[in-house]
Structure formats: C-alpha cells, structure tokens
Amino acid sequence: MAEHSDIRTGRHGVFVLHAHLVFVTKFRHQVFNGEHLTRLEEIMRDVCADFETELREFNGENNHLHLLVNFPPKITLSKLVNSLKGVSSRRMRQEFPELAAHYYRANKLWSGSYFAGSVGGAPISVLRQ
C-alpha cells in the first residue's frame, strides 16, 4: 500500500501515479561524469516542477539515466519526456561545451527512444532487480 505522502489530490480525484523513465545517450556513447549527472538531476527536477510532477528519484551512469516520477493524471508522459530530453540536451550543450563531441547529427544528445514503465512507487533499486 502506498504511503499517504504519495497520495495527491486534484479537483476531481485522488491519485498515486508513478512512472519509471530511462533515457539513453545517442549510440549509447559514454558521455557523463559526476558533474554532468548532478547538473542533469537539477535540470530534470526543474522540468518536472514546471509540469507539476515530482522527481522522486534520479540515478544515472555514463550513458543513461533512470528517473522515478510521481505525476498527476492530466500529464501526458510523452510530452513530459519530450520536454525532459529537449531541455536537458539544450542546457547541457550550453553549459558544457566539451560535450559537443558527443552530439551527433542535429545536435542530439539522447537516443530518439526511451523507456517508460508504470510502477507503484517502488525505488529504482527494487526496479533494477
């Protein structure tokens, strides 16, 4: 059973919705270091806040990111994902010019695909298992 702190209320409903999102770098190139991951988490949190969603957990390695997002039913996940990937790619390109070598064709940092799975709010460590 979900904790009461996870329950969100809207004008016409009460809900607990979580999605596990995974973004992979273009061609799975190993791009990120610790500084990059720290900044990516900040950017992702800002975008989630703009969408009235909560980034519950963030985890990443040199070629991919895991996000656990708590979101209201009015949010379309594909729009959230497009914004997360687009804003993060643009800001990372501006703030870390050395990443330019990893932006292939049309200045894309991320692969065009992504993973989205509905979860009951389980932590990323449990989802990995």
UniProtKB/TrEMBL annotation:
Pfam families: Y1_Tnp. It comes from the Bacteria. InterPro entries: Transposase_17, Transposase_17_sf. Residues 14-129 form the Transposase IS200-like domain. Coiled coil: none annotated. GO terms for biological process: DNA transposition. One of its GO terms (molecular function) is transposase activity. This is IS200/IS605 family transposase. It comes from Nonomuraea zeae.
